[in-house]
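Quick sanity check, 23S rRNA (Uridine(2479)-2'-O)-methyltransferase:
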Amino acid sequence: MIEKITSMQNPKIKLAMQLANRRTRNQTNLFLIEGYRELSRAVQARVKIVSLFICPTLFLGINEKTLIEQIEQDQAFIYHCSESVFKKISYRDRPDGLVAIAEQMHYPLHSISFSPIAFVVIAEAIEKPGNLGTILRSADAAGVDAVMICDRCTDIYNPNVVRASVGTLFTTSVIEATSQEVLSLMREHKIKVVAATPSASQDFTQLDLTGPVAIAVGTEQLGLSDFWMKQADICVRIPMHGIADSLNVATATTLLLYEVVRQRKGKNADHFLR
């Protein structure tokens, strides 16, 4: 049964609006997922959807009915909202009529299954949700085993992380841990840590990245901390030929990930041609 909501004072609408706030997300262990693609990937990954708010007048006509039926079969509550109410809980300029409240996923550090040639991203203290979401999207595209979020600044359940990741937050193994915990795991599995820094003497294309590697990237303003710079097995730089001395962290991560893919493609093609 679908319940209709026309008032912005409805407690369910108020909760959805409050989930834009990190404190509420932490207190409730809930978060928002908006958009057909994002929700489809969440459902595919078996994310627990608690409730779904729909506004049919905003649908894009993709395959919303089937998706809604799937979510309803998983015991989620479905709420039919007026356009004005729906736009209050949407965080997009052009909403497509689907917003869900879901339970957060928390995976232990040792739950990761590494491939024979492990491929990891270590993202330390990334501050901007858009950058973190883009890193997740690139990591998914490059076929990494896991993304390790160290000493987080941005909540991975920030709506803008979900949006920028286009739902790959749900299809990629994302682990939150301290830098020391992640380093210990890398040492345990003999995974070399590759630190990206403008101060390195070698370009990222000059070193062998075909073995087990973890690409470590740091904050937008300061880069990696001294901890990771001292513990890194390899330091690489991306050549800069203009007045800027560094790239956006998400752009730099994407370049480094695809250099790993490029180098490995001939040597270990089966891992990437999935």
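Posting the structure with no commentary besides this: The first helix runs from residue 11 to 18.
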